[in-house]
Amino acid sequence: MPEQTIDLKKRRFLTQATSVVGAVGVGFVAWPFLSTWKPSARTKAAGAPVDVDISKLQTGQLVRVLWRKKPVWIFKRGAEALAALESDAVIKNLSDPDGSGYSKNQQPKYVTTNYRTIKNKEEVAVIVAVCTHLGCSPTYRPEPGAADLGGNNWKGGFYCPCHGSKFDLAGRVYAGAPAPTNLLIPPYHYVSDTLIRIGVDPEIS
After folding, report:
1. Domain span including residue 118
2. How high is the pLDDT of residue 25?
3. 202 vs 18, which has greater pLDDT?
């Protein structure tokens, strides 16, 4: 009788232990499965879209995100900066002033020529922050009249410190710069008035 009691206790203990181990095992199996529902860093780097909330973006402010391992600028231009993009002081110094040359291949077809945005005279711009010369990342120099960048001829833009290339606030390259073409515009669209999705073209009817 005592032996049967001991055997029953052993059997009950083994049954409970097996159940616990089984539950833990299920947990370890389930975790990798659940984690596959989220895009991995490798997937994002390969080109998964990136969402950017622009609801708090101020005039003159620039934010940076990574898309396909490249830095992308999202920045807001004021009325003065937008007007400068069509001024003679800027246009006459551009490498491709009317956008009829190489620059048409530097941006999606739905992007405007002068402002290089989806909408005409749009304040928020989206540009790949990689110089088309040797791949450096230019610095953001939005202040007009910067003495080290040309004084009154400088209406704000980007300057590449590696080899001196200059770009305006639409990412258009100035003539005579080492950079052969404009900064690239990535595919993007507005999910809402305050959310931009980089990496996906808009649905154009």
Report:
1. 44-198
2. 45
3. 202
Residues 113 and 147 in one domain: yes
- Counted domains in the chain: 2
Q: Measured between alpha carbons, how far is 76 from 67 in angstroms, rounded to an integer?
A: 19
Q: What is the DSSP string of the chain?
A: -HHHHHHHHHHHHHHHHHHHHHHHHHHHHHHHHHHTTSPPHHHHHTT--EEEE-TTPPTT-EEEEEETTEEEEEEE--HHHHHHTTSHHHHTTBSSTTS-SGGGGSS-TTS-TTT-SSSTT-SEEEEE---TTTS--PEEE--TT-GGGTGGG--SEEE-TTT--EEETT-PBBTT-S--SPPP---EEEEETTEEEETS-----
**pTM of structure:** 0.74
Six-digit token string for 56: 């708090």
Tell me: pLDDT of 112 over 70: yes
- Residue 203 lies inside a defined structural domain of this protein: no
Query: Is residue 205 a part of any domain in this protein?
Result: no
For position 154, which CATH number holds?
2.102.10.10
Within-domain flag for 160: yes
* pLDDT tens, position by position, 62-106: 999 999 999 999 999 999 999 999 999 899 999 988 777 777 677
Tell me: the pLDDT tens digits for 126-142? Answer: 999 999 998 899 999 99
